[in-house]
Amino acid sequence: MTLAPSLQRPFGPTLAAAALLCAAASAAAQDTSRIARVTVYPGVATVERVAKVPAGARSLTLTCLPASLDTQSLQIQADAAVRVGEFSVLTEDRDVASACASPLDGRIRELEDQIAGVKAEAGALQLVDGYLKAVASGPAGDDATAARGPAVTPAQLDAMAEALRKSGQDTQTRAHQLKRRQEALELALKPLTTERDRVASQRARVVSVTVNLAAEREGELRLAYQVRGPGWQPSYRATLDAAKPGVLLERLALVAQISGEDWSNVQLTLSTGQPNRATQGRLPRPWTLDVAPPPQPRPPAPAMAMAPAPAAAPLMRERSNGVQEAMPSFDVSTVDKGFATEFAVPQRITVPSNGQRITLALGTHNTPAQLITRTAPGVEEAAYLVAEIAPPPGVWPAGSVGLYRDGAFVGTGRLDFATATATTSGAAPVASLSFGRDELVLVRADAPQDVTGSTGLTGARTERKTRRAYQVENRHRNAIDLQVLHAAPVSRHEKIEVESHYQPAPSDLAWNRQSGTIAWRQSLAAGATAQFNAEHTLRYPKDIELLERP
After folding, report:
1. CA-based angle 477:480:486, to the nearest 5?
2. Cα–Cα distances in Å, from 238 out to 247, 252, 362, 413, 414?
3. Distance, CA of 266 to CA of 344 (rounded, Å)
4. Are 262 and 350 in contact (CB under 8 A)?
5. Does the domain formed by 27-94+204-228 have CATH 1.20.5?
6. How would you class 445 by CB atoms within 10 Å of its CB: exposed for 0-12, middle for 13-18, buried for 19 or more?
7. For a FRET experiment, which of 85, 214, 365, 459 has its CA 20 to 30 Å from that of 426?
8. φ, ψ for residue 196 (rounded to 5)?
9. Is 46 in contact with 16 (CB distance < 8 Å)?
10. Cβ contacts of 387 within 8 Å, gap of 6 or more
């Protein structure tokens, strides 16, 4: 049967429009992207997303990307079967983007429904409990006599009492279980609502990237971008076995991020690089000499003093609505060697976007160590066990270190190979890790001896003599490598003369490159005692006041 032309016309354009819509829908690929890899630097991270592109697709939109995304860092790559054209970036509120609803909303609604069900059942049990109490009490007075009816036998009373007891017990038990269930649900709901309110108060925004492409066959598209805020902080564990000449260093890392998107089951790489640092060093400015102009008369002071300029605010992240939020600080200092050290975590890691810190183990390194017993008797009559280690290969950012000696935890310190110095002239630099007090080394400091008098033909100069004496006793069963530190006076003015004598002769007159820090270092046999003496003579004119800073 053939339709009339008047009936054919309405259907022609409709079918054509439907075909065009279907074609457009098939040409625009759906967003099925996932985060495959993340490289974390101090304060910034590079995120790599991977999306499947079906054959025949003409565009792909990746939605719900974080607002901290740096658009200038966008990099797009694809398989050979997918040709990539231009792309556009759109930033909008999360509330407007329907596809970017918070994943917490569904879980929150589910818990709220469960709490409502528990409350409804608890209310029903209250009705049952009230009815049972009314039945148990029964009518009273003349009405009770009139309504008593036939006499009730003892057996019937026993059966009724047992039924009421069993029903009341079951009701009270179930009511208690419902109360505990409600408390557990509310406890699980509280952190979810707190996180949702935090995100809502910030009016979080999201970014969408639309890429025009031509896919001859099915392939993959990779989108890489940088986000501000994530970071990692180094941490270490140092284990010393006093019977072995070495320290076991264990690398740890604390990773956290608030970028706006969770990193779920991703391949994580940590880098000591500093992308936020300047890429070019400062250049010297010309050194010019000129004649200074004559001084100008100072203007009169204003009637009211101006308020001082506000201090510089800490590093903040500003959102689109002007609300500022403090960024987590992961200021990692690195040894400047020109290259970064990267740590590829073998297992896949999940790092939520709520600031939670994840601790990762990055491997161990066994480094040789020189054990010494260090003491500064003029400051403290105690000795400490110190391990001197050479900087291991690679970049080791400075960080806190947990210290273990012979399997026992002794405290925390700081590992910073950037401060490594040579113990003697021409030696390789070493860093020191202190592993606690050595109770088998006794240190004593005699009372200081000071004598002040006059010198010179006219007695116009003051002469002051000081003496310091120390004793160190080794109660170990073996010899120790002993280091004794002493602070000597250092003249900062030409009119002040300092003359020093030591017994025995010190091994270093400027220990750790510090002028005035004297170091004795020697081997001390088991059961032996060593004596150390320092005498200083100060001469200066009597008409000056000596400024002394011990």
Report:
1. 135
2. 6, 11, 14, 10, 10
3. 11
4. yes
5. no
6. middle
7. 365
8. -65, -40
9. no
10. 238, 240, 247, 369, 370, 371, 432, 433, 435
In the numeric block, the tokens 């029964």 are attached to 138
Q: What are the tens digits of pLDDT across the range 230-271?
A: 888 888 999 998 777 789 999 888 898 888 788 888 988 888
- CATH code reported for the domain at 441-541: 2.60.40
Residue 309 φ/ψ, nearest 5 degrees: -65, 145
Cβ(475)–Cβ(440) below 8 Å? yes
Its pTM stands at: 0.62
- 299 vs 319: CA distance, rounded Å: 44
Pairing of strands 349-351, 461-474: unpaired
pLDDT (tens digit, 9 = 90+) per residue, 128-186?
777 777 776 765 444 544 445 566 677 777 777 777 778 878 888 888 888 888 889 88
CB distance 360 to 412 below 8 Å: no
In contact, 259 and 230? CB cutoff 8 Å? yes
What span, in angstroms and rounded, lies between the C-alpha atoms of 523 and 525?
A: 6
Which token pair is 20? Answer: 């065009």
Half-sphere exposure of 109 (CA within 13 A, CB side): 4
